[in-house]
Amino acid sequence: MQTQTLTSRISTTSIWVARLGALASIGLLSLFVIGSIQSGDPVPTLIEAVGIACFPVGVVVGMIIGWRQPLVGAIVSLISLFAFYVWSYLVSGRMNNGPYFLLFTLPAVFYLLGALTSGNPSRSEL
């Protein structure tokens, strides 16, 4: 019985950490987009749009889905991040440096942890 209570607490805490982290990530990414628009950056090319569809768009969509369905949201965000890294390698011939893309996607890991430790990983009971 205590084990069930511990896993329930881990699940609940992980999902709330993911939700708060998702809000922070979405907020910061939104500031980048607003700054890019205000500075008059050129419209992305088709190739750049593919990368943008993976990160940040796919990652953010996954975080929003994760609010209600943590497992599905985590999978969408993590697959989008992986697709972004593949796209980046194909376009530039090298992997991106730095932990920043991973840090922005970290809430997806907490969604995954919360989903896997809950009794019903596809839905949050919160």
Summary of the model, kept short:
With 126 residues, the chain is mainly alpha-helical.
Question: What features would you describe in this structure?
Answer:
The chain has 126 residues and is mostly helical. It has helices spanning 2-38, 46-66, 70-92, 100-117. The two termini are 20 Å apart. The model has no long low-confidence stretch (mean pLDDT 92).
Low-confidence spans: pLDDT under 50, at least 5 residues? Answer: none
How confident is the prediction overall: mean pLDDT? 92
> Overall 3D geometry?
elongated
Series of H and E elements: HHHH
- The count of DSSP E runs of length 2 or more, i.e. the number of strands, is 0
Beta-strand percentage?
A: under 5%
Structural class: mainly alpha
Helix % is over 70%
Cα distance spanning the termini: 20 Å
| Count of separate DSSP helical elements | 4
Main beta-sheet annotation? none
Radius of gyration: 16 Å
Please describe the topology of this protein:
Layout: H1 2-38, H2 46-66, H3 70-92, H4 100-117
Helix pairs in contact: 1-2, 1-4, 2-3, 2-4, 3-4
Question: Which key terms come to mind for this protein?
Answer:
126 residues; mainly alpha; elongated
